[in-house]
Amino acid sequence: MAVSIALAVTCFTSLLHKNFSLQSQVTDLQDRLVIANTRLKPCLLDGPLDIGDSVSDNTSHISNRSLKNSALFFSLAILSIPLIFLRYVDCVSRLRRSADSEEVSLNKQLAYRVDVFLSVYPYSKPLVLLLATFLLICVGGLALFGVTDDSFADCLWLSWTYVADSGNHANSVGVGPKLVSVSISFGGMLIFAMMLGLVSDAISEKFDSLRKGRSEVIEKDHTLILGWSDKLGSLLNQLAIANESLGGGNVVVMAERDKEEMESDIAKMEFDFKGTSVICRSGSPLILADLKKVSVSKARAIVVLAEDGNADQSDARALRTVLSLSGVKEGLRGHIVVELSDLDNEVLVKLVGGDLVETVVAHDVIGRLMIQCARQPGLAQIWEDILGFENCEFYIKRWPQLDGLLFEEVLISFPDAIPCGVKVAAYGGKIILNPDDSYVLQEGDEILVIAEDDDTYAPTTLPMVKRSYLPKDFVVPKSPERILFCGWRRDMEDMIMVLDAFLAPGSELWMFNDVPENERDKKLADGGLDFSRLENITLVNREGNAVIRRHLESLPLESFNSILILADESVEDSAIQADSRSLATLLLIRDIQAKRLPYEVTMVSQVHRGSFSQGSWIGEMQQASDKSVIISEILDPRTKNLLSMSKISDYVLSNELVSMALAMVAEDRQINDVLEELFAEEGNEMQIRPADLYLREEEEMNFYEIILRARQRKEIVIGYRLENAERAIMNPPNKDTRRKWSSKDVFVVIAEKE
């Protein structure tokens, strides 16, 4: 059919051109005949006629017309050849292929090659469009040369004007030139339509790439966060506060989410970024190309967030991310902070990452903080102040003017900071917390302090401090305690071992959860717990559901010194569900305790907290909180704010503290060694001490004098909480100002674990 159409078009065009050509020749001959008759009359009188010029002109005209006919036929042949070729190739392919053969036809092979060419080479489409434009101009120029009397160069230029501006064909005269000019204009419109489509696609693709976060980040010395979790909001808030003194910084977040969704979620966070810019990119941390896209080699710190959900899967992905980061050819300028969910996976991640990796085990941090806060109520608020950048935090800096001083003298050298340790150059940069007073600072040593910011403190000349002795020297006796665990965590065996190291002999640990009692010992043993090594605590198992009141009523809730409500392992994948369960358990326990309080206590007690009256149910629960400490593990910060307002729980520990630790280690990796020692079973820890250990009732002293008195117990006082105050003051100002102290005040110290 294609061949027939092409032949019909060719014949019709040839006949049409022949007709116009004959008519033109007749008109031309008539004009020449008139001219010849005019010239013939005088020539008859003068002599014979010279007809050589006429014959020569006629021959030249016939030759030129033949060339134009050839050009017209050649242009038509060029247009017909592709149709004929494609049809012929398809027919030949069917004839050569046998009935049972599975050979692909030549037509499909050709289409495949064209598709590959257009897909592989990025500039193939513009090149094809340019080639099509060139062919149209050339073919159109040949066709115009065949139907007009213009030269070939003029016809090519005229063809280009038809392609560039389709309205130019309106000036064509004659059927042949009009037909050709319309055809060229129609082809030009198709080419410009395709060109506009390519330009539009290129612009749309670029904007789509920018919208979806595929463009490259051109930054350096930025903080890179890989992954997305509920801790991201708190982490960004802490990084913004840390960068405030620098006028703001740059934080790049890359996760396997849509860029617009990430930006929308970050915009909903209710805090001030304080000049810090947050840049979102969509990509996978397991792909090197995506890592290079966020300038991973130029980042000063890389934070790998743990995924919400299964702990083992989250840690496995973190391990693969560390492997990807280790494969960056350009190398890494900054360190890697990896959040892990299981303590058992920490060794493997450090083995893969080497010296570049610092790990923060979120589950382990929360568990250890819960135990410390259960033993010493009020310690959680202190940890929140130390870990967050809003108040005072740890800083390490070199002060050459302090070389040669004793550590006892260094303690009183900073009016706006409190020294806590020394980074000893002779020990390869090891940080020693709470060193001996006789330690002499050497060249290269750095001082670890607690200060408001890294540019708010500096040493001054030694003040005159009066030295005196402690009013009494004794060790705070330990008494057996009874502690209740509500719920079951993955790291239950680790919490039991830590608790055994802290408690006095004869203490009891009650475990109340819905795990069958005959399975608990097996789970604890599989986790690495050796029951024979438990020296100070006795395990008491009770089975039940912590959200069912009658199950809780079977427990002696009023007899426990501390109650820890754990985010249960069965619902830890869902923060909302885990928090709802913990909240229900907390309310039930406080209500049962309030009902069991003696009548005279509920009537006589005059304790008021917040704006709740004692006649209300919350007021009764607040009175019950005076009898025992309840520490609740909350995963969602929004739930934490709700409980903090009601004050029916002594403190709520949430993922916000983990975000603070991640931000602090990201800003200075050396702080991780300090945190690990403070959380460990051995070494130094933060403690709350009664004031009567250091001073007498109504004794007038300044803070420097209290610091030196505490050194007699090898303790470093870092803050205090007055008798009627709700919060402790860390790194107090005006340390040389004298004031009267009460024996009911308490001091926050860094001391060796007892």
Automatic annotation (TrEMBL):
The chain crosses the membrane at residues 71-89, 127-147, 179-204. Keywords: Membrane, Transmembrane, Transmembrane helix. GO terms for cellular component: membrane. It is found in: Membrane. The keyword Membrane applies. GO terms for biological process: potassium ion transport. It holds the Pfam family Slo-like_RCK. Residues 220-361 form the RCK N-terminal domain. It is a multi-pass membrane protein. Belongs to the castor/pollux (TC 1.A.1.23) family. This is Probable ion channel CASTOR isoform X1. It comes from Ananas comosus (Pineapple). The gene is LOC109715903.
